[in-house]
Amino acid sequence: MHNPDGFRRKMEAKYDQIMQSIAEALLMTCTEAVNRARALDTYKDQTNNLRSSLGFVIYHNGRLLFRDFQAGGTGTGGGGEVSFTTGEGKEVTFLAKAKGDSSGQRGLFQGEALADKVAQKYTSGFIAVIVAGMNYALFVEAKGYDVLTGSTLAVGEDLKRNLDIINTQFGTSFGAFGQGIEL
Q1: Where exactly are the structural domains of the chain?
Q2: Residue of 165, 163, 81, 79 whose CA lies nearest to 126
Q3: CA torsion sign, 32 to 38 to 41 to 43?
Q4: Among 15, 29, 96, 148, which is 20 to 30 Å from 140 by CA?
Q5: pLDDT tens by residue, 85-113
Q6: C-beta neighbour count of 14 within 10 angstroms
Q7: Which residues have CB under 8 Å from 137's CB, separation 6+?
């Protein structure tokens, strides 16, 4: 005679194992990408806010599973030369003073807030969000400095590799389907 409760418990345990495996693969993938970005030395982060705004969140069915943001950097908080081109094509350069401290706390908070805002738009399934949360991150990248973009180019391959590791470890057989990976 079959025990339906025993079968259900085994299926639920396998489901939980698979969900944990997916979460671990996403965690490894996001950690690798963010660590690459944090290690970059392509720009001077005077206030430490930009580098501190680098991080990620992972949610499952609207519930936060992992968050990784770290305040830090080597900036001294002093200003620096700012230059840009106006919409009319005029080159503008000036010296700017930085306000506040150089702890990077502002960047950390802005990075967390942006990642949470994006992730909370998705309430079912897994969502992993990697951000450079300061509003000027794109400006820095547009000037030719790699803040985050280069570090995320291999995320699809990293996820596939990490899922393969998890598959081997747990005897599962799922992969990165290429769906939902937005850069």
Answers
A1: 4-170
A2: 163
A3: positive
A4: 29
A5: 667 777 766 555 555 567 788 999 999 99
A6: 13
A7: 50, 53, 147, 148
User: According to the model, what pLDDT value does residue 14 have?
Assistant: 81
How many helices and strands (H and E) does the chain possess? Answer: 6, 5
Six-digit token pair at 149? 């973009």
Asked whether the predicted pLDDT for residue 151 surpasses 90, the reply is: yes
Average pLDDT over residues 133-138: 94
* DSSP assignment string, 20-37: HHHHHHHHHHHHHHHHHH
- How many Å apart are CA 16 and CA 96, to the nearest integer? 53
Question: Which residue is listed with tokens 């700017």?
Answer: 96
- Structure-token pair, residue 52: 């501190």
Model confidence over 155-168: pLDDT tens digits? 999 998 988 887 78
Q: Is the pLDDT of residue 50 over 60?
A: yes
**Please, what's the b/e burial string for 114-141 (b: 16 or more CB within 10 A of its CB; e: otherwise)?**
bbeebbeeeeeebbbbbbbbbeebeebb
